[in-house]
Specification:
The protein is mainly β. It folds into two domains: 170 residues, Beta Barrel (Cathepsin D, subunit A, domain 1); 151 residues, Cathepsin D, subunit A, domain 1 (Beta Barrel), CATH 2.40.70. The protein is built from five helices and 24 strands. The strands form three sheets. The chain has a seven-stranded mixed sheet with strand order 18-17-12-13-22-14-21. A six-stranded mixed beta barrel has the order 2-3-8-4-7-6. A hairpin with a 2-residue loop joins strand 17 and strand 18. The structure holds N-[3-(aminomethyl)phenyl]acetamide. N-[3-(aminomethyl)phenyl]acetamide binds next to strand 3 and helix 1.
Length: 331
């Protein structure tokens, strides 16, 4: 089988995150979930949450689904790199994404979410697409939607075609040749950390020379920005008039009117250029003349992250075969 579903920006002004419609249970309950290749829990806002923690999000009510089953004695608790988090209990039920159905998918029902999830009213939960070794359900960890679907897929892959300020697509089980140009460059994935960890071959700032350098990082659809080593990031912002690394705003900012260089990264022999517009992420506060950069330092993160700012400059194949690989193509 295969599946195909839209990835819709949650904000009209800047690409904080993308959500995809997912139907759960019988009769179908549709939630807008954030597909996150940087984590491995499928969790939802649920009828088990205090109403004080729900602010407009859709919820999944397992007791309204005739096919829901409590996974007795199991719980989950997760904290993300941005400090947000959630926890709760677990049901299994049917989950459908873009025509692809998994029966008996573990659906982690939130009993508590952090304030940043409560205030993010366009995200009703997450679908983890990382490696199932990262799943937090205890005492028996659960499989991701992708791992559960894999044996029924025409090909054990999913692809991300994210776009700048417009809807893109997640496809499951096939590679849509109409979504990319040229060839797909595949490189090995180290799944030991539980992420889609792959080597980049180097970078260039604007029209400058390409610096060959092996950079290990993760492809993370659930992170908005790109986080790279400080040496690369300072080389970039040296080319931006008025840029400064702001302690108060927590990263590199610059005058919104500044001309930004592009940023090119290598995957094997291939080169992908992130347009300057993608690197002007957003005003630091609505209407401010100071803007926050889409490229930030990974020194505070611990790993390098190729988030949405980079992913939307390419067509990306997450190949869950044995061994796993990741493919990057222009579009
Ligand atoms: C507050 C909030 O929205 N956190 C969030 C959203 C989506 C993904 C992740 C994990 N990378 C965290």
């Amino acid at each position: 089988g295969t599946g195909s579903a839209a990835a819709v920006p949650i904000n009209a002004d800047f690409d904080i995150a993308y959500v995809t419609p997912v139907t759960l249970g019988t009769p179908p309950q549709t939630l807008q979930l954030d597909f996150d290749s940087g984590s491995s829990d499928l969790w939802v806002f649920s009828s088990h949450l205090p109403t004080s923690q729900i602010r407009g999000q859709q919820i999944y009510a397992p007791n309204k689904s005739s096919t829901a089953k409590l996974l007795d004695g199991h719980s989950w608790s997760i904290t993300y790199g941005d400090g947000s988090g959630s926890r709760g209990n677990v049901y299994t039920d049917n989950v459908t994404v873009g025509g692809l159905t998994v029966g008996s998918q573990a659906i982690e029902c939130a009993q508590q979410v952090s304030s940043s999830f409560t205030t993010e009213d366009h995200i009703d939960g997450l679908v983890g697409l990382g490696f199932s070794t990262l799943n937090t359900v205890s005492p028996k960890s659960q499989l991701t939607f992708f791992d559960n679907a894999k044996s029924n897929l025409d090909s054990p892959v999913f692809t991300a075609d994210l776009k700048y300020k417009q809807a893109g697509t997640y496809d499951f089980g096939f590679i849509d040749e109409a979504k990319y140009t040229g060839e797909i460059t595949y490189v090995p994935v180290n799944s030991d950390p539980g992420y889609w960890t792959f080597p980049s071959s180097g970078y260039a700032v604007g029209s400058g020379n390409f610096t060959a350098s092996s950079i290990s990082g993760i492809a993370d659809t659930g992170t908005s920005l790109v986080y790279l080593p400080t040496a690369i990031v300072t080389a970039y912002y040296r080319q931006v008039q008025g840029a400064t690394n702001s302690r108060s705003y927590g990263g590199y900012v610059f005058p919104c009117a500044s001309t930004l260089p592009t940023f090119t990264f290598g995957v094997g022999a291939a080169r992908f250029t992130i347009p300057a517009a993608y690197l002007n992420y957003a005003p630091v506060t609505p209407g401010s003349a100071t803007c926050f950069g889409g490229l930030q330092s990974s020194s505070g993160v611990g790993i390098n992250i190729w988030g949405d700012v980079a992913l939307k400059a390419a067509f990306v194949v997450f190949n869950g075969g044995n061994p796993p690989t990741i493919g990057w193509a222009a579009k």
